[in-house]
């Protein structure tokens, strides 16, 4: 059915430009790569958006202190303090890195399993919210038990708690093996929580590495625990530069991931189709 749809459609869209290119590769295409390469002329990717009215730290009723790009320096720390309290973390002035995800292999949690203890040893706290495969649920529970006060884990799906995590964490980790678009990294940006992501699919399109002084997060390329850990260390070094970190948070919060931007891209595509 999918092959027939691709054959007869005037355009074939994916939810990010990078994923539109990735599905030409057998690694991502589940057997359709050869056919998609034949139809590449009708393939395009348009990045998804988020509901910026719902995900707005200035008005979100789920968080303890509302803030925007002008007031995050005063109020985001209050959200962090509440987050540390909820998860039983020590009230230390160290960065909190968070994951709100399904605990399954393609979300990159196997990379975290390889270097999770090293993340804590680097001087960070870790918060994890999600459900998934038993092996990963068990791993994170054990990591929390070994690192009381430094790791907080809740095996559940709680949307209101997810909002508190987005608002209170300093960094947001998404080391996905594949990610057609991804929305969590966009929500994290909205709440001034800096994404650390693998450069794949929509993560690559929405997060640019801040090493050039222009980006809104930290990225790594290969699907490797060591490379992920290096990106986290770079984020940790950035966090230590208080003035520079404020500039990065401000840039992150001003990123445009609204549906308005995406809708305009779709409108342009439809207008191009009408010209044919």
* Ends apart, CA distance between termini: 25 Å
Question: Could you give the count of β-strands?
Answer: 8
Q: How much strand content do the residues show?
A: 5-15%
Extract low-pLDDT stretches. Answer: none
Largest sheet: 6 strands, parallel
Structure description:
With 276 residues, the protein is an alpha/beta fold. Helices cover 47% and strands 12% of the residues. The protein has 13 helices and eight strands. The strands form two sheets. It has a six-stranded parallel beta sheet, sandwiched between helices. Helix 5 (72-86) packs across helix 8. It is globular and about 60 Å long. The mean pLDDT is 97.
Helix-strand layout with pairing:
Layout: H1 2-8, E1 12-14, H2 17-22, H3 26-29, H4 33-38, E2 43-45, H5 72-86, E3 96-100, H6 109-121, E4 125-129, H7 134-146, E5 151-154, H8 159-168, E6 171-174, H9 184-190, E7 194-198, H10 201-206, E8 218-220, H11 225-240, H12 242-253, H13 259-274
Parallel strand pairs: 1-2, 3-4, 3-6, 4-5, 6-7, 7-8
């Amino acid at each position: 059915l999918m092959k027939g749809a691709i054959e007869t459609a005037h355009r074939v869209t994916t939810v990010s430009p990078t994923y539109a290119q990735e599905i030409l590769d057998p690694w991502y295409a589940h057997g359709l790569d050869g056919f998609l390469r034949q139809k590449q002329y009708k393939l395009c990717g348009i990045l998804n958006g988020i509901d910026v009215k719902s995900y707005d730290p200035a008005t979100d009723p789920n968080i303890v202190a509302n803030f925007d790009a002008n007031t995050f320096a005063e109020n985001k720390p209050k959200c962090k303090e509440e987050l540390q309290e909820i998860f039983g973390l020590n009230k230390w002035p160290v960065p909190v890195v968070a994951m709100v995800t399904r605990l399954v292999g393609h979300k990159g949690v196997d990379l975290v399993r390889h270097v999770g203890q090293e993340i804590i040893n680097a001087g960070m706290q870790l918060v994890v919210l999600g459900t998934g495969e038993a092996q990963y649920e068990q791993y994170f529970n054990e990591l929390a038990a070994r690192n009381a006060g430094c790791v907080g884990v809740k095996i559940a799906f709680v949307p209101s708690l997810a909002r508190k995590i987005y608002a209170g964490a300093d960094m947001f980790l998404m080391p996905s093996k594949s990610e057609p678009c991804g929305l969590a990294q966009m929500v994290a940006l909205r709440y001034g929580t800096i994404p650390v992501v693998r450069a794949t699919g929509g993560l690559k399109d929405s997060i640019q590495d801040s090493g050039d002084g222009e980006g809104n997060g930290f990225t790594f390329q290969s699907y490797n625990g060591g490379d992920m850990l290096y990106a986290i260390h770079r984020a940790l070094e950035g966090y230590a530069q208080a003035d520079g970190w404020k500039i990065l948070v401000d840039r992150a919060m001003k990123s445009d991931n609204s549906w308005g931007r995406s809708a305009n891209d779709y409108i342009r595509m439809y207008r191009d189709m009408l010209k044919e």
